[in-house]
Inverse folding.
């Protein structure tokens, strides 16, 4: 038997311990004290002697790992089963809210009030609100050479805009339009967008304002030099055209501006290129914080005609002697040209002459370039005549016809209460792709109206 005092094993029947001499019989401890005392002794011995224990959960017993002596018998240790966990309510669970992707119609609807058509005497382009304060981003080639432009919003409201930043190396510029200073800007993407992203291009292709087209970002890191340096630009298959330049390219899911639509490529397939927004933010922010002076802008491109919201623009057009003599002669003959000074902000003979002269110059340039963009500010949007001009110029560009203009003479001006009629005698020649040339003389009458903002616009043209 084991001595209850020192643990020494003694012969059966011994009354005193052979080691310590104490009586071997002792009072039996209470059953509840044995596990408690045993557990305390195990913890104490383990901490002093470095003896380890594990729990064998298969048998519910403590197993001694490092003592060679056989331990005394130990009662089973009953391991209490774990209580089941209480279910957690949905209110107690914190989850990260993921903002759902927007519908494309929602993106377009929210973005269009912050997209603009930019007019100059040379033509039109697009732009978008970059920062509060009426700061509008566009392409440099849209406003190159101008400090004053017209900015038209999606509701057709025209306001004055001023170029406050422009680069002669990269195709980007910044305009301030004070009238839109309280409007919240579009959100900008500050990192590169991956290929395959669905995109939306907004702008005024061929003068069709508030246009939206959907496509994909189909290429990255395209480099080219076309008057400006285009580095690592995006390739897109969203439909864009002349007049889209400067408009925003949006991520179709987030609505963020990822690029500035800038170039169009036409070969077998139609696709375009957009300058990544993240690559020009430093330029635009610098101009926003410290606008360029008109002198600095003039040193880059040379500043010429301004183009204001009232259309009461300055012009540096000079006429040759023959043209000037013609009008001096007609005025001296008192041919009955009507000029009613009661039309404040309305029709005046001198203004109509300037308007039609500028239009014909732009028309001839458009024929040579095969691009009707520059004409859009002269033509009434949506009018059948406007579409006819666009179709005609596209046809000339595609079939190789060559026009040579000889004379454009204004022979009559008739002013009514809400319209004016300007008659022109024209002479020109047309050569087809085979080289056959035809000489043509025509008389045309242009119907000119005043829109709600006081702009002259051509609504119709007829051959006399």
């Amino acid at each position: 038997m084991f001595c209850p005092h020192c643990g020494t094993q003694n012969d059966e029947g011994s009354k005193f311990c052979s080691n310590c001499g104490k009586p071997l019989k002792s009072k039996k401890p209470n059953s509840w004290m044995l596990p408690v005392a045993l557990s305390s002794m195990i913890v104490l011995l383990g901490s002093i002697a470095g003896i380890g224990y594990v729990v064998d959960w298969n048998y519910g017993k403590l197993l001694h790992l490092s003592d060679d002596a056989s331990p005394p018998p130990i009662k089973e240790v009953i391991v209490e089963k774990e209580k089941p966990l209480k279910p957690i309510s949905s209110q107690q669970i914190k989850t990260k809210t993921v903002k759902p992707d927007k519908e494309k119609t929602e993106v377009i609807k929210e973005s269009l009030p912050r997209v603009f058509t930019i007019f100059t005497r040379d033509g039109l382009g697009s732009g978008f609100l970059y920062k509060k304060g009426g700061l509008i981003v566009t392409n440099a080639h849209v406003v190159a050479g101008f400090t004053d432009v017209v900015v038209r919003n999606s509701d057709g409201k025209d306001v004055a805009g001023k170029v406050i930043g422009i680069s002669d190396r990269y195709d980007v510029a910044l305009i301030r339009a004070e009238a839109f200073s309280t409007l919240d800007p579009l959100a900008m993407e500050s990192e590169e967008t991956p290929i395959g992203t669905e995109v939306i291009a907004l702008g005024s292709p061929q003068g069709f304002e508030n246009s939206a087209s959907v496509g994909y970002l189909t290429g990255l890191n395209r480099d080219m030099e076309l008057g400006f340096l285009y580095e690592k630009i995006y390739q897109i298959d969203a439909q864009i055209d002349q007049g889209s330049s400067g408009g925003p390219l949006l991520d179709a899911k987030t609505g963020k501006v990822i690029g500035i639509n800038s170039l169009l490529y036409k070969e077998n397939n139609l696709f375009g290129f957009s300058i990544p927004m993240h690559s020009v933010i430093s330029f635009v922010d610098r101009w926003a914080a410290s606008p360029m002076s008109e002198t600095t802008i003039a040193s880059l491109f040379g500043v010429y005609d301004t183009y204001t919201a009232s259309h009461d623009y300055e012009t540096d057009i000079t006429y040759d002697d023959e043209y000037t003599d013609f009008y001096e002669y007609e005025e001296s003959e008192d041919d009955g040209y009507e000029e009613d000074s009661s039309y404040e902000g309305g029709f005046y003979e001198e203004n109509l002459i300037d308007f039609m002269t500028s239009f014909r110059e732009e028309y001839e340039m458009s024929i040579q370039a095969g691009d009707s963009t520059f004409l859009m500010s002269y033509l009434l949007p949506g009018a059948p005549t406007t579409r006819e001009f666009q179709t005609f110029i596209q046809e000339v560009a595609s079939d190789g016809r060559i026009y040579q203009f000889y004379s454009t003479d204004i022979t009559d001006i008739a002013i009514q209460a809400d319209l004016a009629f300007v008659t022109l005698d024209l002479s020109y020649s047309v050569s087809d792709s085979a080289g056959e040339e035809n000489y043509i003389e025509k008389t045309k009458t242009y119907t000119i109206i005043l829109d709600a903002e006081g702009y002259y616009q051509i609504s119709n043209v007829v051959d006399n």
In short: Residues 47-72, 310-344 have pLDDT under 50 and may be disordered. The first strand starts at residue 53 and ends at 56. The chain has two domains: 104-296, 317-463. The CA atoms of residues 319 and 347 lie 21 Å apart.
